[in-house]
Fold:
Amino acid sequence: MKKYGIIILLVLVVAAFVIVPLINNSGGEAEETEIARFETPGNIQAKYGDNVPVKFSIPEGLVKVELLYHDSVFETWNNPKAQKRTVAMQTNYYGVGTRPLVLRSTFKDGTVLENAINVRVVSDIVPEVRFVKILKEYPHNKENYTQGFEFDGNQLYEGTGDPGQQGKTLVGPISLETGQFIEPKNGLDATYFGEGITIMGDLLYQLTWQNGKCFIYDKRTMMLKGEYSYVGQGWGLCNDGKVIMMSDGTERITFRDPKSFQAIRVIEVYDNVGPRTNLNELEYIDGKIYANVYTTGTVLVIEPTTGRVLQEIDANELVVRGKNGGDVLNGIAYNKGTKKLYMTGKYWTKTFEVSIDK
Structure:
């Protein structure tokens, strides 16, 4: 009898392990259906400035329901009755880009569950196509794998990369007339791949590609003053005199505090079709961000507040005239005093003074 009793006990134990989870899972699914849910099928795509109707249902018994757009609370309902609602979402709150839209349900026991979709906002502007016109040619050092290009007053600075990992990353002032570095300059060892540069006040900032480091130099002595850390890749830098703007090879541009390098906000760069990725070397000109599109002869003109692409500059004539066995277009420098614009590329033999024409 003991033998049969043990067998029966084992069967009951096994059954408990199988049946109880099934009951719990069934209950969980039932609870999941009682959260506030979107009735809009799939994700939403709209143009910047549109009012998009968003439909959702709220069940009985919730303490609170919140509608969040891009992590900000858009609307709140406390102790709501069971209902179906439609809210007109204005798509110009956070510029263009893909943002999460979330319904957050809070239960009486404090449990919080969410139902989410994405809102993809493209630009309402078809970018105006423009072309570069070459005004003058200058020599450029064909040993320079150009990553950063920027004026400070009338002095031009350049930062280079190091594709061969030979310790050839350099940064410092260069002569526009000769294309050569002027002392003092500074360099990084082969473990670092130099990227974009920008200058604010007495400091020059230099990104690294995959090291998550931004080095800071005294612009006059080029002595290293310190460094900041960031997450992700570093590509291009520019500034508006107040904040630093940084690209990372995606469609994102991050605005950073120059005193801490902490992120302040992020824009996503979209045209009327979708995201524009591979944003590389940057320049801030008259309230707009100019961005080289890596591996192309294209420069985008971007609205900093929204991320919308306003113009698309075809600079392929420069590629034909200046590449001469080098690499891609990459380098925009604007002299605010003279109002002159210069462009070059990686390992190019020439730098060009250009105008932008229709």
User: Anything to note?
Assistant: Residues 1-31 have pLDDT under 50 and may be disordered. The helical segments are 2-32, 316-322.
